Task: structure prediction
Amino acid sequence: MTPFIAEIIGTAILILLGGGVVANVVLNKTIGNNSGWIVITTGWALAVYVAVVIAGPHSGAHINPAVTVALAVAGKFPWTDVPLFILAQMIGAMIGSSTVWLTYKSHFDATEDADAKKAVFCTAPAIRNTFSNFFSEAIGTFVLLFTIFYFTDANITETKTIVGLGSLGALPVAFLVWSIGLSLGGTTGYAINPARDLGPRIMHAILPIKNKAKSDWSYAWIPVLGPLVGGTLAAVLMLLLS
Result:
């Protein structure tokens, strides 16, 4: 397990479980059909938890280009490793979304709503407005990264000894993503992760999905650049306040 492989596997698991919960809710004839936004946001939060548990010990579990770039801006990650991590995240996202399609293929075939099928792969705005959509993605990712920068380790007060929480250490980021989804996700579906949106969108365009919609490439730049801008602003503010 190298950092590169960890980012591939971690991101693949993130998209498998995250896209999987969307498929379970929006596709026809699933057991979880129409179970709602709470189920989707909870599923994505737990997907982040599982992905961080797997990748965290080996790569730090960035599983998100916005995280990788923001950490580099903050001086906490070498710029020379940024392209490799982003490549791994994109590969993982494409693997994960393809696996969701294979898992739910019968339900994709049973679903007539082309936009519902596309929603399993990528985000779309509730109201299409370029500035508002970009701002939504930027502010959601800003909250994600700014909070991550202020995560602290548990420690024994008298000796200042840091106490490792093992796999439980991944819980804070899961709660963070859950909060963002519940509070800020209603505008654009809160991609807050360029690889999470772009990788699956590419696979939506490539895979032989029955009666699929267009992949909406005119919107695709927003869930890529919005998170990168939001994460960078969070890193800059953190540096100014430190």
Remarks:
- DSSP finds ten helices and two strands in the chain.
- The mean pLDDT is 94.
- The longest strand covers residues 155-156.
- The two ends are 34 Å apart (CA to CA).
